[in-house]
Amino acid sequence: MRDARPDPGQAGALLLDWYDRHARTMPWRVGPRDRLAGHRPDPYRVWLSEVMLQQTTVAAVRDYFHRFTARWPTVQALAAAKDEEVMAEWAGLGYYARARNLLKCARAVADLGGFPETREGLLALPGIGPYTAAAVAAIAYDEPATVVDGNVERVMARLFAVETPLPTAKPDLTALAESLTPRDRPGDHAQAVMDLGATICTPKSPACGICPLTALCLARAAGIQAELPRKLAKPAKPTRQGRLWLVRNGPLWLVETRPDRGLLGGMTGFPGDGWDGSGGAEPVEAAWRDIGEVRHTFTHFHLILRVLAAETDANPSRGSYVRLAPASLPTVMRKAYDLAEKTG
To answer: CATH code at 258?
Structure first.
């Protein structure tokens, strides 16, 4: 292994040259040619995309982004939207606290008259953490803020042959990323590193033969690039079990709006029991049919739900009967709905 670390200036120049030729086309991105021609990224679109992309793939986000920006083309339009409309449009993206924070942040920005133009100013907004603040500051305003996501951590771990496992290595990897962040074109640099990690320096089978940093990469020189970054073993996820009650009253379904805090906060769902800590009795007296189970995995646990169905016009003790738009349901509830439709 070489003793000398890669030169940050050389690595940065190679990255930008590669990005200018190979940047991914994104609906929220202003490409390098357009940017050099004077077109500026819209901070609203940058912020919205970064919130949507947290713990979600680009492929999963594209359609949601198009729908959101078609319906709410500005941050002011989003700020004026009804909570339930935004939550319904978000359904299926998961991590629903993001949607609640999205609205809080949009309304704060609208009150300010626009987005702050610095990382520190962005950090003062509700729902914006260090990563999102750095991304918006760098990409929208060209502040030399260091943007570090999983792709960036992987590139840094390999480029500098950092063998300390994640998450212990996070501070060191962030410092290394900061050492590479240039004052000129920091937004393009940030996107270049993320693109490199997403398309070439991938978790498995990195394409080192076409990587612009191959000649500088210490892990490549040592033959350990596929082993990095190392990660500490994660504890096994526990499994929870519970019930959902699906009640149909002619064309109507019995649903309730979940509390703002907690799992699926603020979302529409079927009454349930025993899986989210909220408890609850049967919502109506009825002849219940056990129609099967649905399984779903959240960030911290696996979930198995028995689905009980009934048809009645009895007054419920919780929730209300509505004409249901299945697309507005969070994924686990949509699975239960699909099971009910399939079993009749």
So the answer is: 3.90.79.10
